[in-house]
Amino acid sequence: MVMKGLFGALSPGGPRARLPIFVFHRVLAQQDPLFPGEPDARHFDEIMGWVAKWFQVLPLDTAVMQLRAGTLPARAAAITFDDGYADNATNALPILRRHGLHATFFVATSFLDGGRMWNDTLIETIRACEVDALDLSGAGFGHFKLTSAVDRRLAIESLLGRVKHLQPDQRSEAVTQVQRAVPIALPDDLMMTSGQVIQLRDAGMQIGAHTCNHPILANLTDSEAMAEIADSKMALESLLNEPVSLFAYPNGKPGTDYCGKHAEMVRQAGFAAAVSTASGVSSAATDVFQLPRFTPWDRTRLRYGIRLMLNLRAAAPQVA
After folding, report:
1. DSSP alpha helices (H): ranges in 194-270?
2. What is the dotted CATH code of the domain comprising 2-113+191-312?
3. What is the pTM of this model?
4. Is the pLDDT score of 275 beyond 80?
């Protein structure tokens, strides 16, 4: 009750309302030694229990509409997921339903039905590599020790950091070179099927667009960026036979991963709102096409709650 009261004081209703938006990606069946910070089902269930007690969780489109109208209730919040991983349907959905919570799932449409994102290709390649050292100097990445989970995590972090912001064709070639060095079969069931997207919608969840191929929009030409934004909307609307009004920027850092012109493209494409990965909370003055999101990384109830309170008190979020 104390925590709930504090959140009520920090997040009042009406014209002074503040809207925290949580962002998740995966909910693993069990903890992954390569990514111990990624929530598994047990910990995600624990987090959702805290969130259900502390906040009034609303559908994101409803929350944004009420925020702009000055009618958002106290302690309002929204929950989102990015990318479209299959475990969103298999692991996250049952937990959300058990706690009576709503979430919005932003889907990168080109990876549905057996696709795999470039970052997962690198991750799963390093995970499955059967040697204790990997020479990627031919691809310009140097040598990596792989004798422990920590070594493999460091190798993955190094590769992701160096590849992420390459131009799309350069990024694809870099990933291909790593695959050639470790010729192994990779999983093709990491992302949702079209049926699972429909399952989420039919369970009362909301589906949003996240481009087709998850590119860094700032690395594309204007026509390429507009196609990624608009085509993902059309693909989901065709699948669901209903309007798709919400968008999430890939990677989502304002000024680095997307620019102000991309927010304008999202508006022109017919979306009603969009979310970034800038930390902070939204107020009535926040750009509806650059809504910030934040999720604490702490594992205990007290620290998780304190981190949320600090975020609620944060200054205006960064925008492009």
Report:
1. 194-202, 222-240, 260-268
2. 3.20.20.370
3. 0.96
4. yes
